[in-house]
């Protein structure tokens, strides 16, 4: 089922048409077919700095992302190439090659692994470490520092690679046709180290809360970002995740309900002998259905979708109860017809309309009632349908009683009373049954609620722990960055980061003491 992705060449993911961004349907369709978690590697940097060339190396191919042969910027928009991850089984590596920046100030990226290739062609980068800031308040310094500060802020964890010139100047134009032994051996080694580092260190793309991103999720994120940008908004990770959660949680409800209905149809044989039997099966299917929802849903704010699931499960349970009642009633009516029709025929023929006939009639009636009661599989309406039938035939029995000449008036009166008492007893029993059923339904409601709460609590507790670990990791990295800024003499930047860290720490201690469900 989880077959490896086959994409012979990159496709354009986002087109840049006169500054307007458009998502390309072909690329979105490809993403929608990738059920595996994705590792996303994007590259950004100045134009004509060998980004596309490097991305081809990551794809393990000589050709793919198209390289520029002129001095003009070549790649337009964002191109995507999905390949099986070379070292992580059951993962897809999504390579994103971007349009070269004319101005490094435009660099704005978010979480996925991003390589910043800032190496100008024909120029070795001798400035080590790479992200040092320039002292001074002039335009030149600000211009120099801003992208570096941004990169340092958004990518607290960094790793720098310096590449030597790949080959002799004359050969640079046709790099992609050269064999490794025609390239500078240092460069070949550096590229191999770079690729190995990326493969080993790039994590599966997750969204806040440790939720793994697969192809369809990435597709939705792309669409949400593009929409936000088209509307003039800043693409915001939080909003994109919420939009994604809406789509997926609503699908998770549908999936969980479909599972419940399918399992109930498979496991329940209508009519069931007792209501409890149906409710027990409901409880088992409901538990699994909630599990399925909990597994696939995320960021279900105020449990909006779980509440919807609960309501739909209740409706479906009631539907099964109604079907159960109907199945039982149909079965009992058919049985009554089969068992009692011969007696009705005999009455019509006048067999019991003679002296002593009433006694024979009641005897026969008792026998047939027993026969009916002995019959298995009638379901929960057995008694009610029988009583309804007997009641409907009561005037026939009365007529036979009144016309039987072997009985005295006194005996007839006693018999009428006996029949009345019997009917009253039967209706009391039915009332008790009904109360019992109501009680069982109420208990089931409480159990359903408890099941929802139990599963939700477990999930929220797990998510809370993950979020806290995530926040603590971020704080640790930010603290390192703050210390570095301070050491470099950037007091105001360091102070700003210090405030950010304090806010984060406050949030962590809040979530530590927070009760999961109140
Ligand atoms: N000197 C040198 N040339 C390189 C290097 N990497 C690639 N090239 C060559 O530089 C040219 C441009 O490379 P690309 O990979 O297209 O550069 P790019 O950054 O994708 O360019 P844009 O798409 O315009 O942003 C090609 O002819 C490559 O063969 C490198 O590390 N050093
Ligand atoms: Mg390019």
Write a concise synopsis of the structure shown.
GO terms for molecular function: GTP binding; GTPase activity. The protein has helices at residues 25-32, 51-58, 139-154, 185-201, 215-230, 237-267, 275-296, 304-348, 357-374, 382-392, 394-403, 409-487, 491-513, and strands spanning 11-17, 20-23, 38-44, 78-84, 92-98, 113-116, 206-207, 211-212. With 518 residues, it is an alpha/beta fold.
Task: Spell out the key features of this protein.
P-loop_NTPase; Signaling Protein - Interferon-induced Guanylate-binding Protein 1, Chain A, domain 1; immunity; two-stranded antiparallel ribbon; 6-stranded mixed sheet; Rossmann fold; 3 domains; alpha/beta; binds guanosine-5'-triphosphate; elongated; coiled coil; 518 residues; 13 helices; single chain; innate immunity; 8 strands; nucleotide-binding; binds magnesium ion
Q: Helices, strands, pairings?
A:
Blueprint lengths: L10 E7 L2 E4 L1 H8 L5 E7 L6 H8 L19 E7 L7 E7 L14 E4 L22 H16 L30 H17 L4 E2 L3 E2 L2 H16 L6 H31 L7 H22 L7 H45 L8 H18 L7 H11 L1 H10 L5 H79 L3 H23 L5
Parallel strand pairs: 3-5, 3-6
Antiparallel strand pairs: 1-2, 1-4, 4-5, 7-8
Helix pairs in contact: 1-5, 5-6, 6-7, 6-8, 7-8, 7-12, 8-9, 8-10, 10-12, 12-13
This protein binds guanosine-5'-triphosphate and magnesium ion.
Guanosine-5'-triphosphate binds next to helix 2.
